[in-house]
From TrEMBL:
Domain of life: Eukaryota
UniProt protein name: Protein enhancer of rudimentary
Gene Ontology annotations of biological process type: pyrimidine nucleotide biosynthetic process
PROSITE patterns the UniProt entry points to: ER
Family in the record: Belongs to the E(R) family.
Source organism: Drosophila kikkawai (Fruit fly)
InterPro entries: EHR_sf, ERH
UniProt keywords, alphabetically: Cell cycle, Pyrimidine biosynthesis
Record keyword Cell cycle present: yes
Function: Acts as an enhancer of the rudimentary gene. Has a role in pyrimidine biosynthesis and the cell cycle.
């Protein structure tokens, strides 16, 4: 488990910048999914169940002005930066594992 900081800037204005921190990369990727789900709930307040596919999630990520992660590297006692493409790859792996998990 590597401490991970998610940096998000949804809009053009710097004031829209925010961050969240997580105990692991997987928790962070789940956090990105939750951000999208909250976005969908705000846009569809009267819809009781929200569903989406991975391409819609990736399109949402692409619309963000900026999103990146800083992942703690124990060996160097530093944080390494990762970009949108890395985040999308990690989300893909996470959701694929969840889809093929016996508990899914």
């Amino acid at each position: 488990m590597s401490h991970t900081i998610l940096l998000v800037q949804p809009g053009v204005r710097p004031e829209t910048r925010t961050y969240c921190d997580y105990e692991s990369v997987n928790e962070c990727m789940e956090g990105v999914c939750k951000i999208y789900e909250e976005h969908l709930k705000r846009r569809n307040p009267n819809t009781p169940t929200i569903t989406y596919d991975i391409s819609q999630l990736f399109d949402f990520i692409d619309t963000l002005m900026d999103i990146s992660c800083m992942v703690y590297q124990k060996s160097t006692n530093t944080y390494a930066p990762y970009n949108k493409d890395w985040i999308k790859e990690k989300i893909y792996v996470l959701l694929r594992q969840a889809a093929f998990s016996p508990n899914a």
